[in-house]
Amino acid sequence: MNIVLLGSPGVGKGTYAERISKIYNIPQISTGDMFREAIKNKTEIGLLAKTYYDKGNLVPDDVTIKIVEQRLKQDDCKNGFMFDGFPRTIAQADALSNIVVIDKVLNFTASEEIIISRLSGRRVCIECGAIFHIKNIPPKTEGVCDECNGKLIQRDDDKPDSIKKRLDVYKKQTEPLIEYYKEKGLLADIDANRPFEQVDEIIADARKALDE
Ligand code: ADP
Ligand code: ZN
Predict the structure, then answer these.
(1) How far is Cα 160 from Cα 166, in angstroms, rounded to an integer?
(2) Is the CB–ligand 1 distance for residue 7 below 6 Å?
(3) Is the pLDDT of residue 103 over 90?
(4) Burial class (CB in 10 A: 0-12, 13-18, 19+), 42
(5) Largest CA-CA distance found in the chain, in angstroms, rounded
(6) How far apart are CA 75 and CA 149, in angstroms?
(7) What's the confidence (pLDDT) of residue 203?
(8) Domain tally for the chain?
(9) CATH number at residue 19
(10) pTM here?
């Protein structure tokens, strides 16, 4: 199954993507993670992406489409995959439709208030990428990853100015994809307005939509 996850930054997409990709045994393809890795390793794409990334702007479509195309050629994508954070523009969605068939699009929704609180409290492990939240999913020891003991940090783009910017960018450039996929009959809305203790129920709703 080839799946796309939509939803505002901060809706919890990364967390849901990780769970769902394990259940369906398909790789989670996060363009955000791919850009972070490229920036860390100072690759050509990383150097190109960094100026956009740091300001909370989208990386240009041609660069983004290129890394996705390369990723889809890998063997683990043969039986399906799940996109987390891609496509983010109509141009990306059009390009994607020329490469593969998408079977389902899950659109996770939550109020702006919930979204801002999730983003500003998020902490990530610099070693393994595990995601925590200072209130909702606190690590056992403050500032330390439960999984690997790595240091937890706040991503540069989770600082207040960048958050505002990312939400603006989402509204302008990505939100139109909801209508785009609705028209194609691929969209299922999943209510993510629930506290993190109820993440199992959010996942159950997602599975129901996928198994229909
Ligand atoms: P979030 O969904 O929490 O905003 P991501 O990790 O998905 O975070 O993305 C972080 C940044 O990576 C974006 O702000 C953008 O600069 C870049 N990025 C990720 N995916 C894309 C994409 N599909 N197109 C353009 N830029 C992207
Ligand atoms: Zn870790």
Answers:
(1) 10
(2) no
(3) yes
(4) exposed
(5) 47
(6) 31
(7) 97
(8) 1
(9) 3.40.50.300
(10) 0.88
